[in-house]
Design a protein that fits this description.
alpha+beta, 21% helix, 4 strands, 2 helices
Length: 112
């Protein structure tokens, strides 16, 4: 999908999963419809990356997002995520599940 990758990343594959990543599956009626990948930044901060299929949008996505946030806050004090400026849907989703914008990381993605 064009809104989830920058230009040079199209067609790229991850050949080895980093050892410090944890994957949290999202299921609807026993079907995996996405996941959250997390990895600690330090003892109190964890980074999250969201991957949800179109079949998990709307109320289901909000429910899953709020659930993973609640779970992560039992172990960490801060959750961070990096969202490319061009991915407006991801920004809206992040804000709806409780994230706030703390800054802008300019020129970090090459798009169009």
């Amino acid at each position: 999908m064009d809104d989830i990758s920058d230009d040079p990343s199209k067609g790229c594959q991850l050949h080895e999963i980093p050892q410090n990543f944890t994957f949290h599956g999202v299921f609807i009626n026993d079907e995996c419809v996405g996941f959250y990948a997390t990895h600690p930044q330090n003892a109190i901060t964890i980074e999250i990356h969201t991957v949800l299929l179109p079949s998990c949008r709307g109320k289901d996505a909000l429910k899953a997002g709020r659930l993973i946030i609640e779970k992560l806050f039992t172990q960490y004090e801060k959750i961070i995520s990096y969202i490319a400026e061009y991915n407006k849907k991801a920004l809206i989703y992040a804000q709806l599940v409780g994230f706030s914008i703390e800054g802008t990381n300019r020129n970090s993605f090459l798009k169009n």
